[in-house]
Amino acid sequence: MASSTNISPDAEISLALMRDLYTGMYRIRQCEDQLNTVFSKNLFPGYIHSYLGQEACAVGVCAALRQDDCIVSTHRGRGHYLAKGMALKPMMAEMFGKATGIGGGRGGEMHAADPANGILGGNGIVGGGIPYAAGAAYSAVLDGVDRVTVAFFGDGASNQGAFHETMNIAAAWKLPLLFVCENNLYAEMTPFKDTVNEADIARRAVGYGIPGVLVDGNDVLAVLAAARTAVARARAGDGPTLLELKTYRTGGHFQGDPCKYRTREEEALWQSRDPLPQFRAVALQRGAFEAAELAALEATLAAEITEAIDFSLASPDPEPASALDHVYAL
Amino acid sequence: MTIRTYCWAIVDAMREEMERDKNVFLIGEDVAAAGGAFGASRGLHKAFGALRVRDTPISEEVIVGLAVGAAMTGKRPVVEIMFMDFFGLCLDQIANQAAKMHYLYNGAFPMPMVIRTSVAVEMGIGPHHSQMLESWVGHVPGLKVVMPTTPRDAKGLLKAAIRDNNPVIFIEHLGLHRIKEEIDEDEDLVIPLGKADIKRVGRDVTVVATGLMVQKSLDAGAELAKEGIEIEVIDPRTISPLDMDTIAASVRKTNRALVVTSAHKPFGFGSEVAAEIMDRAFYDLDVPVRRLTPPFTPQPFGKGFEQFLHPDATRIAANVREMLA
Amino acid sequence: MSPVGPPPRGSHRSPQGEGTPVTHAIFIPKLGLTMEDAIVVEWGFADGAQVHRGDTVVTIETDKITFDVEAEHDGYLQRVAPVGAKLLVGDLAGYLHPSADAALAAGQRSAAPAFPGVPAATAPIPAAAHPANLGAAKDASGRRLMASPVARQLASARDLDLATVTGSGPGGVILKRDVEAAAPTRTAPPAQASIAVAATATATATTIIAPGTLTRRPMTAMRKAIAQRMMQSLASKAQMTGFGRVDMAEVTRLRETLVDAADTLGVRITYTDLVLKAAATVLAAMPEMSAWIEGDDIVSWNAVHIGLAVSVNGGLIVPVIRHVDQLSLVELSHARLALIDKARSGKLTRADVDGGTFTLSNFGSYGGDFETPILNAPQSALLGIGQIRDEAVVRDKQIVIRPMMSISLTFDHCLIDGAMAGEFRSRFKALLEQPALLLARLR
């Protein structure tokens, strides 16, 4: 098992790439912040599962992927959707269940898909996406192409039978599949460590004979490096990798979660490890941005999110009768 | 023309479809090297290679998951779940994932996948290998459920299921594997889903039968004919979507309906047929719709119990006579 | 449960309290200002049948019109008033019960005279959708009969009373075969009969008592209504008829001009239109002609609404053209055509026949000259016109040929004296003989 904390092969990270990474992370941050505000004003239908704090995971992994690579997401998928290239307004409108959403408002906050960008949906079932990520991977095998699939999931899903079945078959069949576990230390409202004997999920890979990699999930460059290695392995036909990204969700399990299950000290600690200020500093220091340019970019990204939210709030609801469509394909 | 068994008809169907469309592939436990736990995929591994016909570990959830993901990315998977009793291990991928993909994502993902599975009712194997669970899957919007009872029907319906762009649960009866029928091997035999078959024309009672009960009803029919009673036996062939037009038309003619299944009475297929007959042909009924099923118990091991619990031709005939009394 | 006797008028709730299933009463609605009563023509369903809100539950006929009463609630029918009964506005006609059993039970307990089910020949319901006799009658000891749906269906179609059938099913249930044995052939197939306003079904059964001597058939509802109305009119007014003769030469010339311009005008003006206009002009100036007596009062309309008697299949109907004095000839003609069309196709509504202040009847259309028309109560005057015919008359001591039209004005002498009636005829005649005078008052 390799530990790749803070491995950043600088030579391979261009300034342009750094700008892209920061842009991607900041966009997600703004999206989640502003949505939390919208929620607190009682303008959001249903639950919000915030991706706040985990931005480096989605952006780092997706930066290692091509457009035709596939991802399968979870119930906490906005970070994945945006990082993989889903258009902002249709995504946002889908969150609000509007007719202008990418799924016509029928999927909502936990279910958005974009086949053109290889985004194969989210899931309301913890771990529900992992088995079918294997199916998408197997399609590539059948076609003889080097397309890879990423199964995103959380620490909670790592205890589902579906995870283990898929790990086994992916390893046995050498599927071009990345198992990316975003371990934010809490499964719903229970500390992960209370539910397992072995706190490092990456170690499970040994049992399946595949590489398991522990990564600082708040260091986007570390995540990117680990993802690139795993992707290269998969494209070469050598099979799957399990990446465990240690991170923290600075929001609760869902918005409005009073988080009684964790201490304020713990929260403060992870606040100090917030992936965005970390990387911002690195990017400025490396010269990827001028300060003013960065501020302008941040303002633009914030405005885009605001515009997308306004667009969504103003969009019409779906036609109720459309509930009868698409039960069966022709 | 050639005589084919029910089992070989299934093999033939898969072979023809895999030849026709390279996106069709088959995975499951023992399907490749062994040619199927029950011989329903003999020769396919050799014909189509290790990628398109592949053995899996015993992992029902991911077996179905593989089908879901492959269907979402351009393939037409056929996967096998050895016994329908094992559906509990993979119901999330069937009911929450496969059935809902196309709907949830607003028509973005047609799901052309077939889950073949077997039932071993009345074969004496025991409680975990003898259940008729079509109601479980018939109750999920987005799924189709097929249950053929003859070789021709099996072949034609499996080809249609593979060509269908929706998840189809294809239920095979182990007890029917050996029955034989003449099939034209040159015909591209595709029987549309959702169309019932009148296996015996009659005028006195409509008997809707599924699975093993079809042949038993026909046997009962032969007996009753000696007494001048002519029953009409309808094999729905597709459980969902159910061809109620054919059934209702028959009831309008006979004024009496008996539904015979291996499945249980409460919340079962017979209840669905009875309710639908009420909607469509209530004013044509001379007696209430009757459901003949085994009693509501799990299936204990052994032939003695089987015979006690399950309807047979004698009981079917007795019920018909009662309805005419 | 059914209430004992009809509930008070205006009440639509049976005394069962909130929250229990409710029985709704069906009353004779008031359809027009002057309507007082109606005859039950036909029930839309049989006892115990399921009725949905909006279905035509019963058809009634007033002195003016035939009307389909729609159910205001869902329910199961109990018919109280038999076909042919005359009921007052607000009277109870039947009930809609919460269940077929309740409807049938109530029907058995009510003191209403027994009457047969809806005869198959006039049942307007397709048998498959609403079989009559859903809940069959009772047997001799009053117990409910058990019969299968198809047996009931068939019994209804064959007009067979299930109480007369012995059931051979389990527990004595009546099955299809029992009905088939009891009534092997069908009588009349259930047909769709639409109840047009005027063209009601004519004679049903014909019974010949002795060949070549006497024929008897029942009156249609419309005929009964007409007969009643006529007698009532004669009995309540002192009717006298004054006659006159009008030279129609000028009118004829005027009409020819108007007919030539039919394309421009968009309509072909007729003699009737011109006569109506002349009459309306006089009526506007002589409001006493449009008054009538009610009790001790004289009631008058400050308007000129003229009814035009139209002959339709089986009878007579009088649609009303409103404010004739304020309509142009073109407008008048259009209005007249529209009403006649509606009358002939059975589509007149209550509003179309109500509120007339005067009536015009054209005997000329069937070759009449002078007649003594009967007043269209409650109106006090009615003008009849005869054919326009070339006749020899004396003008300036010469015998000339002129197109002459006879007029017959019946009036209620209780209210209108001979002199006033004569005045009306004079002014009317003057307008027609010098149509330019119509122009003089044209606004």
The mean pLDDT of chain B is: 96
Number of strands of chain B: 14
The counted number of beta strands of chain A is 8
What is the straight-line distance between the termini of chain A? Answer: 48 Å
Q: Segments of chain A where pLDDT lies below 50 for 5+ residues?
A: 1-11
SSE string of chain A, helix = H, strand = E?
A: EHHEHHHEHEEEHEHEHHH
Range of helix content of chain B: 25-40%
Describe the biggest sheet of chain A? Answer: 6 strands, parallel
Order of strands in the sheet with the most strands of chain B?
3-2-4-5-7-6-12
Query: How many domains would you count in the coordinates of chain A?
Result: 1
**Relevant CATH superfamily of the largest domain in chain B:** Thiamin diphosphate (ThDP)-binding fold, Pyr/PP domains
Write a concise synopsis of the structure shown:
With 330 residues, chain A is α/β, with parallel strands linked by helices. Chain A contains eleven helices and eight strands.
Spell out the blueprint of helices and strands:
The complex is a heterotrimer of chains A (330), B (325) and C (443).
Chain A: E1 2-3, H1 15-40, H2 55-62, E2 70-72, H3 78-83, H4 88-95, H5 130-143, E3 149-154, H6 161-173, E4 177-183, E5 186-187, E6 190-191, H7 204-208, E7 212-216, H8 220-235, E8 241-246, H9 264-271, H10 275-286, H11 291-314
Parallel strand pairs in A: 1-7, 2-3, 3-4, 4-8, 7-8
Antiparallel strand pairs in A: 5-6
Helix pairs in contact in A: 1-2, 1-10, 1-11, 2-8, 4-11
Chain B: E1 2-5, H1 6-20, E2 24-28, H2 44-52, E3 53-55, H3 60-72, E4 76-83, H4 91-98, H5 101-104, E5 114-119, H6 134-138, E6 144-146, H7 151-163, E7 168-173, E8 180-183, E9 197-200, E10 205-209, H8 212-225, E11 231-235, E12 238-240, H9 244-254, E13 257-260, H10 269-281, E14 290-292, H11 303-309, H12 313-324
Parallel strand pairs in B: 2-3, 2-4, 4-5, 5-7, 6-7, 10-11, 10-13, 13-14
Antiparallel strand pairs in B: 1-8, 6-12, 9-11
Chain C: E1 24-27, E2 37-43, E3 50-51, E4 56-61, E5 66-70, E6 75-79, E7 86-88, E8 92-97, H1 100-109, H2 149-157, H3 176-182, E9 207-210, E10 214-216, H4 221-236, E11 239-247, H5 249-260, H6 262-265, H7 271-285, E12 291-294, E13 297-300, E14 306-308, E15 310-312, E16 315-317, E17 320-321, H8 329-344, H9 350-353, E18 358-362, E19 381-395, E20 398-412, H10 418-433, H11 436-440
Parallel strand pairs in C: 14-18, 18-19
Antiparallel strand pairs in C: 1-8, 2-4, 2-7, 3-6, 4-5, 6-8, 9-10, 11-20, 12-13, 14-17, 15-16, 19-20
